[in-house]
Write a structure and sequence with these properties.
alpha+beta, CBS-domain, two-stranded antiparallel ribbon, 5 helices
């Protein structure tokens, strides 16, 4: 089912708070913020520009499994800097395709160099389920003759 829902609609419902870290922050500070905000990824920002992304996956693979200390390792040492981004005009379907193709769970939403938000696979799934439920309700009303 194609929904043609733009990312801007999802961001509108999700809110505009963008938590982030700097490259010189410690990994411990990053995971502490992620735990406090109950999020799985943080944009890494330098002078207001996106420098990378730090995710739970980065932590488990580049810190925990490598025996590094999160209290002394800097985010810049372990961030993912080949960041795949989307714009507010991109569709939810395009985001799902990108996440599936690149095996990622988070996408920063950007306008030029400005980060407008970050969306997760969970956000997309919830949005699609909501759209499907609305479509089913409309069909049921139509079939019942209630337009």
């Amino acid at each position: 089912m194609k929904t043609h829902i733009p990312v801007s609609s999802l961001l509108h419902h999700k809110g505009s708070a963008v938590w982030h870290v700097a490259p010189e922050d410690t990994v411990f500070d990053a995971i502490k913020l992620m735990a406090e905000k109950n999020i799985g990824a943080l944009p890494v920002m330098t002078h207001g520009m996106l420098a990378g992304i730090f995710t739970e996956r980065d932590y488990t693979r580049k810190i925990a499994l490598m025996g590094k200390s999160s209290k002394v390792t800097l985010v810049q040492e372990v961030l993912s800097n080949d960041v795949i981004c989307v714009t507010a005009n991109d569709s939810i379907e395009e985001c799902m395709r990108l996440m599936t193709e690149h095996r990622i769970r988070h996408l920063p939403v950007v306008e030029g160099q400005k980060v407008l938000g970050i969306i997760s696979i969970g956000d997309l799934v919830n949005c699609i389920i909501s759209a499907q439920n609305s479509a089913i309700e409309q069909m049921e009303q139509y079939i019942a003759g209630g337009r």
